[in-house]
User: Fold this.
Amino acid sequence: MAWEITRTVRVRLAVPDDRMSDLHVTNDLFQYCANRTAEWAWRYPEDDCVTSKSEAEDAIYDDLRDETDYLHANLVQKAIKRATDDIANCVDRLADGKETSKPEYNTFSIVYDKRAATYYRDRVSLATVNGRVACEYDLPDDPEGTPHGKYLLNDDYEFATSTVHYDSETDEFYLHAAMEREINASSPEKAQHSRVLGVDCNVDDHIAVTSTGQFVGNANYLNHQRREFEKRRASLQQTGTRSAHLTYQRIGDRFGRWSEDYLHQCSKALVEEAQQHGCTHIAFEDLEQIRDRISDDKKFQQWAFRELQQQTKNKAELAGIVVETVEPSYTSQQCSKCGTTLDENRNGQHFECLDCSYTANADYNAAKNISRKLALKLQRGQKSPAGGAFCQYALKSGVMTVNATEVASDQYVSAERESTDKPTASAVGS
Assistant:
């Protein structure tokens, strides 16, 4: 089975001084097209919003081309797509009963695909309002081991639709180059000799806990950083001075970039844990199911389950590890040792089975249940009813092999030494 993986590399562009204004004007027109599309497509609450790119193009493409003095056709199309995609996300939020508003575009961000840009390993040619501008990449002297060397200069990767950004603090332009590659990975339904690492995600305490007993990241710290950033932005908005406004624009989505890097460290730790234990698969709870069952509290709705899972998937694919999700029912209440499922088994971060008296950290217990669910799915997906290959899930010390649907029938390959409620390690940020 072929997997398509994408890596984004940020590279500074050496834009000729006399062409910088061309990029700024191009961005102004690109954002104009996106805002005009959003204005036309946003019909809430009187009517249904338009989320179809083709419908929007049929209605306003010709007008936008005329109003922008014939901005490159592909840039107009990309601006329309950006707006309709964002409105589709807004519609999803409205359907879930969440607050949202019409998208607005006022930052420097131009989307370029291969029709509006010609990509090379050392430079790029970008369409602007005044013809094309050729920009060389500012590459490190020794790119080996850097994202530039791994992806941008790697012939195994091809350029895909990318974006150009502008940093007003440094007066520099950057290309966020999307690099794509296909690799082969085993299909979960045909898995042979599978070994699963289970991961339980959290909004408090640790960001993720694995079935091998690793406690990764610090969700409380991440939530604190978010609150501090939002307080600063709110304070700047309330101040209302030009200086405050410029500072507000300058900091932009600084927290978003910081949290993305923080989750990068967490996802890296998860993949390394899977590799250390010889795992072929990583199991998460199904994202949508998690969203449906968690609180409506703001910090829960802002939690980056999707980003953590996606980053883990990207890194895992490069390592030949498959990331799958499982249905999350009862993973928190079920005893991973005997299978007894009771709400009373869990009390905060403490899990104690009322039937067999097994005790453990509640998230660790849940991670084992998650890993076991995928191991069972893999075992049932084998062609032979008898299995023919081991389907296992990794634990703190050793693994368990599944061979039936009841927990009690699972067999230890090697004994697991349990702790009580204490984390054994914290890979990131505790």
